[in-house]
Amino acid sequence: MSKYNIRKNKPAPSDEEINKYKNFDKVVKKAAIYEYKQATRPIYKNVKFMGIVAVVVALGLIVLFENYEEKGINKPITTDKIIVNDTGSQIHSTKDSILKESNVTGNSEMHGKNKDSL
Amino acid sequence: MIKTLEPQYHKSPDEIEDELLLINRAKQHPKDFAVLYEKYYKTIFLYVYRKVNDMDLAGDLTSDVFSKALATIQTYEFKGVPYSAWLYRIAANEANMYFRKNNKKECIYIDEISIELLNESEEEPADECDYLNWLPHCLEKLKEEEVQLIQWRFFENKAFKEVGEIMNMTENNAKVKTYRILDKIRKWMRDMKATKL
Question: Rounded to two decimals, what is the model's pTM?
């Protein structure tokens, strides 16, 4: 069932019929009531206010999660790991987790921190 | 004979400027709003009446439109377009709110010229009777903004400039969007015609 009812040829009520409904005093009274309703509208129905509240809550949540991640438990420490060959030129660079040693391992691996000292 | 829909846009820049004076006066003294009320009452009443097809209801809704316009006149910002565009927007919202709340069908009056224009690019245009039966289904598939564009242009016979002013978009944008919507409608019409055959 469609929500539109299509008809042909527009109706044309006479000016007299139209003017029968004209009442400016009624419009002024209705406007005063509408203004009063708007003024006494509960704050939670105010779209602007609720929008601001939503933004503040969203920002609060973002800050909260940021802090949580910074203090996070078991967060892997990532360091740059650079693998160099015997002549000292870099052959591979990768990210490695939970690597706390910073010295060259064996004769061909070292961590980023010590790269410059070679 | 080729029929064309050539709505005239009557508002000159001087008229729009004069209207601004009336609006400013109404902002200071609500009683001065009566001039704008007198000027646009018939236009808005007829627009609402064509949508609801009931004189009493149209009278009530028109009165709501003007009371809202009066209550919010302090927030009205002049953007170089006629005040009627603002009133039409309130009227369209009021009417849509009424249809939603009361679960009523919206009436759309269409004249022969509009039917021909909507049907024009078809090699074998649909029968007028079929067309009137299919059109509601096509409108149903469109977004609310798209239906409004078609309504202003073809059912209310407004110039693209005025359609743009009412819908808060440029004249060109209104034109492009309307023709895209028409293409969609024509495609759906062809599909329905093929299904019928």
Answer: 0.71
